[in-house]
Please model this.
Amino acid sequence: MLSKIMEKALNEQINAEFYSSYMYLSMSAWFDSLGLPGAAQWMQVQTQEEWFHGMKLLRYVKERGGRVSLKAIKQPPVEWQSTLHAFQEVLAHEQKVTGLINDLLNLAVEEKDHASNIFLQWFVSEQVEEEANVGTVLDKLRLIGQDTTALFTLDATLGQRVFTPPPAKAA
Ligand code: FEO
Model:
């Protein structure tokens, strides 16, 4: 059984993950409007990953006999200054989420909630991957600078990203 404080914190994280999903969907729509379908696809995959994270947390709360309590998802931004700026915002957002996951893990330790501790380890590893993924794109965007031709080439590469759900055992 989850403690009330852990249940509340996990519900807040569910909201944070669904907000992330919504924000990346907004970024995807913005990239589409710019004529960068590859970046839009990259963000679509990001949207699916965040939805997956939210659902994984939601299932866990249920499994532990907790009460899922969904809250309003705040409105995300609808435009960004540039492609580079949008991806910088992705990195900043993921760093913030990493902090939230670390806080949750600290709480699990404080609460002596070993099951939540083990469950949250998956998210710790996932955040390392999330930050690395966007970091790779940012490195390329910085090299590209104002080169439009190179941007379209990168866009084609970004468009190859597909969502691959983790194996059932890890999900
Ligand atoms: Fe679910 Fe990108 O953190």
Q: What stands out?
A: The mean pLDDT is 96. The chain has one domain: 4-158. The chain is about 75% helix and 0% strand.
